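Predict the structure of Sphingomyelin phosphodiesterase 2.
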Amino acid sequence: MEGEPTLRLRVFDLNCWAIRYLSKRRPERVRLIGDTLRREGFDLVLLQEVWSEQDYSDLKVKLADCYPFSHYFRSGVIGSGLCVFSRFPILDTLLYQYSLNGYPYMLQHGDWFCGKSVGLVIMKISGIIFNPLCFPSLQLHAEYSRDKDAYLPHRLVQAWELAQFIRHTSKAADVVLLGGDLNMHPEDVGIRLLRGWTGLRDAFAEATHFEGCKNGCTLVPDNCFTDKSELLPFPLGIRIDYILYKAISSFTVKCEELKTTTGPAPGMDIPFSDHEAVMATLHIQRQGQPAGATLGTADVALADVVTEARTEVGVGLRAAQQQRYSSGRMAVLALLLLLLQATAALGTLAGLGAEQPFPKLSFCLLAFLALGILILATGLHLFHTMEVKMLHGTEDQMSMALRALQERP
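Done. Here is the predicted structure for Sphingomyelin phosphodiesterase 2.
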C-alpha cells in the first residue's frame, strides 16, 4: 500500500582483484576490505575476483557478527571468484556458467580457466522476495583491447545469456538487483542489450545524489594498481562496475544515493582494489498496482540494439568457423604425416626398402612432433566446433527475439 514504510537497502559492490601470488598486497587489502565492511554495516555485499577460498573463509569469520549469511560460488578450474555477504537470510542460490568464456590457449588472459558465471541469490526481506544477482565475476569477459576486441562476440553471448537468465529466473521475484563487473562501457552494445532486454535501471543514472569519481568511473588512472597504459584513451577513467535494479511486482525502487571510492582507503596508503567500490542506497516501497512493464526501452530502439548485437555475433561466428577449418586442416595434415611415417617404418621392417630414409633419431622426433600437432589441432578443432555451435545458437535466439519485436502491433 502507498502508506507502507519504505525499506532502505544499502548495497556494496567491489571487484576485489584478489589473485593469489599475483595481485599486489592481496592479504593486506582483503583484511582492509573486511575491516571496512564490518565498520560500515551494509545490508548486502557483492564481491568479485575473490579467487582464494581461504580469503573468503577469512572474511566469513571476520564478518560473521554483522553478516551472518554468506555464500561462495564455485566453478571453473580456479573458481568463479563470486561471493555474497548478507544481513538477511539467503533462501536459495544458483550458479550459471556462461557457455563461452574466451580461449584456453590464451594463458596470459586466463578468463577461460576461472569459469565466468552469474550467481543467483534469493532472499526474503520484510516480505519482499529479492532476486539479487552478482557476477564473476556477473563478471563478463574482460576487454583487454578496445581497438581490436577479439572477445566481443563472447562478451555479447554472455550479455545475452545473462539477460535471458534474469528474465526467466525473476518471474517470481518482487525486486531484481544486479551488481558486478560487466567489463563494458555504459554505451556499449552489450550493456544496452542487457538493460533493454531486461528493463534494468542503472543506479548511477537514476541516483538522486552521487558522490565519488567523475562520471561514476570505477577504473581510474589515479588508482596505484591500475594499468595506466590501458586507460590512455580515457583520461578520466572508465565505468565498468554497475549496480542495476528493477521492481517487478507491486513495488517501486529508487536510488537515493550512489557513491564510489576515490583511491586510497581512509587512513591507508592503498585502495581496496584496482577497481573502485560502488555503494548504493536503495529505497523500496509497495505501491497500489503492479509495476507491469518488463522491457525498459521502446521496441523499435530495442530491435536496433538486438540487430547490432546479432551482427557482431555473426562476425564472431564467421571467425570461429575459419579457426575451426584451419585447426581441422592442420589435424588432417598431421595425421597424414603420421600415416606416411608409419608406412615407411612398416616398409623398412618388411624389407621393402633398402634402408630407413631418415636417421632413427630424426624419424622419432618427427613422429613425436606430428603426434603433438595432431593432439593440439584436434583439441582446437573440438573447441572451435563448440564455439561455432554456441555462437550460432545465440544468433538464432536473437533472430527469433527480433522477429517477435518486429511483429508486435
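The chain has two domains: 7-292, 296-407.
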